[in-house]
Amino acid sequence: MTTPPKLPDVLAAVASQPAHPMALASLLQFAASRADIARSLTVLRWLEVLGLPADSIRRQRSMLSRIDKTFRHRDAVAQQTGPFETRDIPGVGSLRFSTATGAARAFLALLDREGAGYEPGVLRYLVEEGRKGSLVADVGAHVGYYTTILGAAGARVIAFEMHPDLLLEVKRNLWANRLDRAHVLNAAVGNYDGLIFNVRFDPTPGLRVEDPITAPPPNAIDKALYDPVLSVRLDTVFAREGVVPDLIKIDIEGYEFEALKGARNLIAGGRTRFLLEFHPHLVGAFGHKPEEILTVFPPDWRQEVLADDGTRRPIDPSGRDFAYDPDVENIKLLFCPPGS
């Protein structure tokens, strides 16, 4: 834990950088949450009493006040665009989830039907990651169920969701729970950087990338049938040194191989674990056989099945784990570099 700076150091830093609106917040490390922003404003009021130059105080307060106003605006948007329902999440507590769209209501109905049986192994694993303060990429966030849980548990989250309507649901779930270190990008994750065109249809659970999306007809941008969506490679998103996710969770309905092709550098770096909600019966639509997943990661990586009870076992190399079971939507696979 970093030792807080002493008051003379604070005074000297702010006085020497009056034109830098975040000098005080940066020095005090008061920018991780809205509560920290409020504390910064309080400290500024005290420093004004202590006689810090008015110009420096004004510059600092202007930036922090605008950030604080943004948070309050988001709170208002979340409240005005409800409704929400509360769910008790094991290991986290009560969280609010939107019921504003058919997709959101359908997902909550699925949770209610499954009860404690809805992906308990994944839930437990992600809550543990959140408690570590991990940086997690949630690829295929849907309505933001796991993004919200990760943020509430303490993770820093960057979520990717390609459907514009679902993007709004993820944002409202985060805002309603005041989770300011979880962020969502309106992007598909694949093996190239550029545009795709998403057919405008109801994003109920089970939405997946299809040929009409990845290869639309000519002049798709002129048609009312499509939304243009950014496609990104994970290697591109996390190319800056020091911004490397501890965990990447991928649930994109059979498009997993394309996302992993766009993460070759992250895999080679050996600092990131991958949790795949793997769809053996869907990957064939994109030209792959399920067992090919065993060749994507280096041979010294642990390759495991994450069971619903939270236990892990090695993936069966015979391929039996990938046999299609109509009662099982997907199989949870963990790929961990040595020493992780």
Derived structural class: alpha/beta
Distance between the termini: 22 Å
Rg, nearest Å: 22 Å
Q: N-to-C SSE series?
A: HHHHEEHHEHEHEEHEHEHHEEEE
Strand content: 15-25%
CATH superfamily of the largest domain: Vaccinia Virus protein VP39
Spans of 5+ residues with little confidence (pLDDT < 50)? none
Shape: globular
Helical percentage: 25-40%
**Strand sequence of the main sheet, in spatial order?**
6-7-5-4-3-8-9-12-10-11
Major sheet summary line: 10 strands, mixed
Number of domains: 2
| CATH class (first level) name of the largest domain | Alpha Beta
CATH topology of the largest domain: Rossmann fold
Number of strands: 12
The CATH architecture of the largest domain would be 3-Layer(aba) Sandwich
Keywords:
single chain; 340 residues; alpha/beta; Rossmann fold; 2 domains; ten-stranded mixed beta sheet; 12 helices; 12 strands; 37% helix
Quick overview:
37% of the residues lie in helices and 20% in strands. With 340 residues, the chain is α/β, with parallel strands linked by helices. Strands 6-7-5-4-3-8-9-12-10-11 form a 10-stranded mixed sheet.
Explain how this protein is built.
The chain has 340 residues and is α/β, with parallel strands linked by helices. It is built from 12 helices and 12 strands. The chain has 2 domains: 7-79, no CATH class; 84-191 and 202-211 and 229-336, Rossmann fold. Helices cover 37% and strands 20% of the residues. The strands form 2 sheets. It has a 10-stranded mixed beta sheet. A two-stranded antiparallel ribbon has the order 1-2. A hairpin with a 5-residue loop joins strand 10 and strand 11 (312-314). The chain is globular and about 75 Å long. The model has no long low-confidence stretch (mean pLDDT 83).
